[in-house]
Design a protein that fits this description.
Layout: E1 2-8, H1 11-25, E2 30-36, H2 43-50, E3 55-57, H3 67-81, E4 85-89, H4 93-104, E5 109-112, H5 123-133, E6 136-139, H6 142-151, E7 166-168, H7 175-179, H8 185-188, E8 200-204, H9 215-228, E9 232-236, H10 244-253, E10 260-263, H11 268-277, E11 280-283, H12 286-290, E12 299-302, E13 315-318, H13 322-336, H14 350-360
Parallel strand pairs: 1-2, 1-4, 2-3, 4-5, 5-6, 6-7, 8-9, 8-11, 9-10, 11-12, 12-13
Amino acid sequence: MERICAITTGRWDYSHLYWILKDMQNSNEIDLTIIAAGNHHCIKEIVEEFGLKSLLMAPSIENIDGYGQFYSYILSILKVYNPDIFLCLGDRYEVHAAATAACLLNIPIAHIHGGEETKGSFDNELRNSITMMSTYHFTANKRFSDRICNMKGNMYYEIGTKASNIYTVGAPGLDWINRSTLKYIDELKKEIAIDFTKPYVIGSFNPVTKELEEIEYQVIEWIAAFNAFDMQTIIILPNIDPGNKKIIDIIFNCKFTKHTCIVENVNHLTYLSLMKHADLMVGNSSSGIIEAASLKLPVVNIGTRQEGRIMPPNVVNCGYDRESILKAMNSAIVLHSHKVYENPYGDGQSSRRIVKILEDFI
């Protein structure tokens, strides 16, 4: 059996890896081990789904100061376990630390969601670095595959062949929409304190790590737009990128004039269910770019954090000032509300494709 070790550091990557991990767990040709960060939001879920025998715990990593310790610990784990393939997803600094450890041990890396661009964040450089360290690449769109091909000097190889090791499979986060039953409003009422008989907007704003000096202005303008918009709001608190604590402080110290529910942590199924029933999403989360089109949800994408990604037609881009945000919110509601768009990030069948390709490496 092929020994594959996958890394997950929080809900941000576990939600996208989940169906890949489930399909590997059910494969007769793959022996799966999962490394999880100690402060992972979903440890209980991972244990319930995959069992303690499949789980290796790494230290907690709460900010960039923990990069070195996390790298060192992953290095020691991989030296002992020595998998055939190390699987990782995305562009976070924790994942970069783990991928660096695998690279220095000459363990082939399979990377998901490479070839993309997010110009407003240092994730861009981290993602490209992981791409250059990786042997196998699973991308969400052919444009991303082409970019990896050029980055690695494989421009004469045909994408999707073993010669290039670059495969366009779609975004695995979309698999939830095809492979699970999203929650009904009666279920969501038990978890989220808003009136689901009335329209609501989801707000999610993460740090723009190349513009940290502008965080206060950006978040205050974002909240001001909600206050000027006639709709109740669900605020999803940000990830653990540098600057997140400042955003959280501003959110809890600002006055909301409309009914607002602030949510610290929800599982991915609940999150997608909230998106399905919402009337609008406003912020700078990648979920607004990747998943929202498949849920017929109009999105206002603020600022530069997601600049460089392929934007589905349900997305309206705008600047950071409240007037631009409010104008975009009204436009998105009028132009895009609950229309069906083809999603450039795939058809929700990515996980099975990835696992079948991994099985073929044996």
